Amino acid sequence: MGNGPSKIKFHHNGKSRKKCYNTRRKSSSSLSSCSSSTASRQNSATSSDNDFYRFSYGRRYQNVENVNYFMPNDEDEMARLQLLHYLVKLNWNSDFSSPITERLKFGNFKVLDCGCGPGTWVMELGSEYPNSHFIGIDCCPIFPTSIKPANVEFQCTNLLNSLPFDDDTFDFVHMRFMVGSFTSEQWESIVIPELMRVCKPGGFLECMESDMKWVNSGPATDPYLQEYLRRTDRLVNINHAHRNIPIGGWAGKLGESAFQVAQQTFEASKIHLSEFLEISHDEYDELIRIACREFDQFQTMVPTFRFWAQKI
């Protein structure tokens, strides 16, 4: 980083200061009691996966063609994603925003989760709604294979190669924290069309993301996703909700939990971001130390948001 200007910023409550970080993506907490639900990790798929993975600086990463996701996908990352799940649920007080609760309870309702990771979201909903059926997909086999509810299944597939399902298969199609995994062209020409293709008419499509910048204003990605959804002309009742997740002890237990998630996210992003910023690992570590000190000082928040719409 040297003496030149930093290429990334943190934005805080009140005054903003240059210094920090501009990332997103799934992510630990005094929710650690929840995270110790490691059963799903202990029986994750471990087939002859060498083709799926590469290793760098002691971390394991996906090695799937055309996939842009740069975060690790090893045991530490699975724990981080599980903790992020519980943090988001605590902040939103729900696992989804689409109006489907009664239909899930009634049953005979098919749900697809794209980019399911360790499968925490799918497993939780499968247990909560035993009369409905849930499928999670991911490009790497990091999900449970044996210990799971009878109404839950997982498949290893790459969304960019088209989904292995017939048209109009699912009543609810869900995806979250995937905005950085695809290019703008992929979102518009492949991702959104595929999600809509497998969704039944009258079914719901829901996407959740966090902002690429940590700010207190509305999410910068808001017009990005919303415009894609509107342009399809096949979705109605397009809705948007936004909530900030506070980071640091100033926000109590929730903020302390978010702080731990942020620390783990910074560490998991070190290799990629230090290369992007053209700084050494030591310089990156110092940058993050400064950022973490400023969370309480400036009452930093991470914007998260959900879009949901109904297919015509």
UniProtKB/TrEMBL annotation:
Return the Basic residues bias intervals: 8-27
Name all Methyltransferase domain ranges: 111-203
Pfam families, A to Z = Methyltransf_25
Region labeled Disordered — which residues?
1-48
Q: Which SUPFAM superfamilies match?
A: S-adenosyl-L-methionine-dependent methyltransferases
Low complexity biased stretches: 28-48
**InterPro entries, per database record:** Methyltransf_25, SAM-dependent_MTases_sf
Q: What is this protein called?
A: 9816_t:CDS:1
Q: What is the lineage of its organism?
A: Eukaryota, Fungi, Fungi incertae sedis, Mucoromycota, Glomeromycotina
